[in-house]
Amino acid sequence: VAEGEPSEGREPFELPRFWDALGQTFQVTSQEATKLSLAFSRPPLPSAEDCQKLSEDVQKAILAVATVYYWLPKGQGTTLRKMVRDATTEVVEGMIQLTDTILNAPVESLSQEQLISTGGVWEACEQVSNLPRGEYNQAAVVSALAACLGVVKDAVEEMEHALVEGQDPYGDIMEDEELGFRGNRDTYWSEADRQLLSSCMGLMKASKACLKKVLAAVKAHGKADSPEQIAQLDDLADIANEISPSVDELALSMYPPVNPLAVRLNAAKLASVLKKVLEIAKASHVCPPSEEGWVQFLTGAVDHNMNKVKNFTQGQL
């Protein structure tokens, strides 16, 4: 499941039928996990015959989950397929863990590990109800973009909080011998640092605005009626996934002691990713003429802040 590639089926693919079947197989797996766990929750142990039946039922349930996942063709979109694959893998791994726990647990009582593992399978099986089921790949891409936006929002808020004038960025860390006294300038920002970091904050805020606008455009105009539209949505999700790690890398390099060249390098990486996102969005069907204004504005904002970062660090080169 984790590494295999579903083949394009010969029969016409029906998404509602797929969701029904996936929901049923996850439900059956959850029930089999409960049966297996209860059978080994107290002495006496099940007979060899009962063990055989239990293990066959568990195996059937897991094979059914994997089989239904393999129904989902590539053509439905890689973002949707990745979400279904992750959910399916979690169910299979959960069942493996539960089986291992039962095999290694003492027979006398129901162990805490067994309870946790059983709950883990239930939780994994319930995830099927949270998978995005809107218009094919469009709903999956909306879900992926919203998740990226949430992470970037948190990073921006955290950095804004740390940059409050006069605040010690390491104020929440107790004094210790390694850090030295609070007077150590390596734990503070100089005025020059703050000027450089304000432009970096501009880039981080542009990241948030970029994801917000792309998400709104995909919700408003995203379609999955043709292979080309599905591929465009996947491209957007893929490149948007690069924003969050790039924001995190930039934020980490902004903490004192600041190395201006490291900050410049990470800012350039983020600016490059944002420009790519905006280019891909502009060239796709989610960006009709009515959406071009914000693309232009945000491209300008990225360039403006990156140029300021370059100016502040020019003397370091």
TrEMBL record:
<feature type="domain" description="Cyclin-D1-binding protein 1-like C-terminal">
    <location>
        <begin position="175"/>
        <end position="279"/>
    </location>
</feature>
<feature type="domain" description="Cyclin-D1-binding protein 1-like N-terminal">
    <location>
        <begin position="22"/>
        <end position="163"/>
    </location>
</feature>
<protein>
    <submittedName>
        <fullName>CCDB1 protein</fullName>
    </submittedName>
</protein>
<keyword id="KW-0131">Cell cycle</keyword>
<keyword id="KW-0539">Nucleus</keyword>
<dbReference type="InterPro" id="IPR026907">
    <property type="entry name" value="GCIP-like"/>
</dbReference>
<dbReference type="Pfam" id="PF20936">
    <property type="entry name" value="GCIP_C"/>
</dbReference>
<dbReference type="Pfam" id="PF13324">
    <property type="entry name" value="GCIP_N"/>
</dbReference>
<comment type="similarity">
    <text>Belongs to the CCNDBP1 family.</text>
</comment>
<dbReference type="GO" id="GO:0005634">
    <property type="term" value="C:nucleus"/>
</dbReference>
<dbReference type="InterPro" id="IPR049318">
    <property type="entry name" value="GCIP_C"/>
</dbReference>
<dbReference type="InterPro" id="IPR049317">
    <property type="entry name" value="GCIP-like_N"/>
</dbReference>
<dbReference type="GO" id="GO:0005737">
    <property type="term" value="C:cytoplasm"/>
</dbReference>
<keyword id="KW-0963">Cytoplasm</keyword>
